[in-house]
């Protein structure tokens, strides 16, 4: 997990919030000398600083950054809240020092321990989707945790020695920019729209950082993409792996039927006017929550119940499962 050059120098950690504190401890426990600094006199992780200061090889600097130390570091680990134009990062890049996110550091440690991951990014909906994915994994009987930008640093999971089969990791564009080793098993891109233009010179630069989700794409990867968002599809174009699309507008691997049934036809909503019907093809409806076994969900609504209705948008009334969740199964 620890590159050999780091063991012969000092690694700088910029920012002493939860991520910076966890990264500092993870490095120190791996035998790496650490210079950790924060420009604030009262960093978010202040209560943990006494503990950090007692670790062998750790030097703390609160209220300032020693740019000379940072320029001479073997690497810089940056906390999520530190903007890319911050003086320590500008100094490090100008000196040719590698700058890596805490996500990158923590991911390498956890991947080496055998944990698998689902990364979630996008302009909107990241946190909600991350929490939902973690919930679904747990509901499927898998040991899972929500981590990353949602709140719990990956480095903290590594330091505590917690064991999970799967991690649902929320990642921002800033974290992706500095995560060259980040390689999730599954990636979800919720949507794209111009954002953070106070920190990016143009929307193209923002989208370029989002594209880093696919930088280590391999044939075994699965990418869950917004099929209604042309920018998302363009961003993922050419990435190795299998693509699964979701849509609010048309049939896809997973889609949401918005028919209101007002015309009195055979649409799903005609069976129950207030109902919205989620439809999913069997190839995608259980892909994430049962990725390891590739087996259908253990439910009376068997995989065979999810089949295409013979009458277009009409509900598959002949399906063997009559629960609300599969009333409109295809």
Order of helices and strands: EHEHEHEHEHEHEHEHEHEHEEHEH
The parts where pLDDT drops under 50 for at least 5 residues are 260-330
Roughly how many Å apart are the termini?
45 Å
Estimated helix fraction: 25-40%
User: What's the total helix number?
Assistant: 12
Question: Which CATH architecture of the largest domain?
Answer: 3-Layer(aba) Sandwich
SS class: alpha/beta
Task: Give the number of DSSP strands.
Answer: 13
Largest sheet geometry: 8 strands, mixed
Report the CATH superfamily of the largest domain: Mur-like, catalytic domain
Report the principal-axis shape: globular
Describe this structure in words.
The chain has 330 residues and is of the alpha/beta class. It folds into two domains: 4-97, NAD(P)-binding Rossmann-like Domain (Rossmann fold); 104-246, 3-Layer(aba) Sandwich (UDP-N-acetylmuramoyl-L-alanine:D-glutamate ligase). It is built from twelve helices and 13 strands. It has helices spanning 18-29, 49-53, 67-71, 87-94, 102-112, 126-139, 154-160, 173-177, 203-211, 230-236, 268-271, 282-285, and strands at residues 10-14, 33-38, 58-62, 75-78, 99-101, 116-121, 144-148, 166-170, 186-189, 222-226, 242-247, 254-257, 277-280. The strands form two sheets. An eight-stranded mixed β-sheet has the order 7-8-6-9-10-11-12-13, sandwiched between helices. It has a five-stranded parallel β-sheet with strand order 3-2-1-4-5, with helices on both faces. Helix 9 links the parallel strand 9 (186-189) and strand 10 (222-226). Helix 1 crosses helix 7 and helix 5 packs across helix 7 (154-160). Mean pLDDT is 82; it is low at 260-330.
């Amino acid at each position: 997990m620890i590159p050999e050059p780091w063991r012969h120098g000092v690694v700088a950690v910029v920012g002493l919030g939860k991520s910076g504190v966890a990264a500092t401890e993870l490095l120190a426990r791996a035998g790496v000398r650490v210079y950790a600094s924060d420009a604030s006199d009262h960093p978010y992780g202040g209560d943990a600083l006494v503990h950090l200061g007692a670790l062998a090889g750790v030097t703390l600097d609160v209220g300032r950054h020693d740019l000379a130390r940072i320029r001479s570091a073997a690497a810089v680990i940056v906390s999520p809240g530190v903007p890319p134009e911050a003086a320590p990062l500008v100094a490090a890049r100008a000196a040719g020092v590698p700058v890596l996110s805490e996500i990158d550091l923590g991911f390498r440690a956890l991947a080496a321990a055998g944990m698998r991951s689902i990364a979630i990014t996008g302009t909107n909906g990241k946190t909600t989707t991350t929490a939902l994915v973690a919930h679904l994994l747990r509901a499927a009987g898998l040991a899972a945790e929500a981590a990353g930008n949602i709140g719990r640093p990956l480095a903290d999971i590594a330091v505590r020695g917690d064991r999970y089969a799967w991690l649902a990791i929320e990642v921002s564009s800033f974290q992706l920019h500095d995560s060259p080793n980040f390689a999730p098993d599954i990636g979800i891109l919720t949507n794209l729209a111009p954002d953070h233009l106070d920190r990016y010179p143009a929307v193209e630069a923002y989208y370029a950082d989002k594209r880093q989700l696919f930088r280590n794409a391999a044939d075994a990867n699965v990418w869950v993409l917004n099929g209604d968002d042309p920018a998302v599809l363009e961003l993922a174009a050419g990435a190795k792996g299998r693509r699964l699309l979701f849509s609010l507008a048309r049939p896809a691997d997973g889609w949401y039927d918005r028919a209101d049934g007002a015309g009195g036809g055979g649409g799903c909503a005609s069976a129950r006017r207030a109902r919205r019907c989620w439809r999913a093809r069997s190839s995608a409806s259980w892909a994430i929550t049962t990725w390891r076994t590739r087996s259908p969900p253990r439910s009376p609504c068997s995989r065979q119940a999810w089949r295409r209705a013979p009458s277009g948008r009409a509900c598959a009334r002949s399906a063997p499962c009559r629960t609300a969740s599969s009333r409109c199964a295809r």
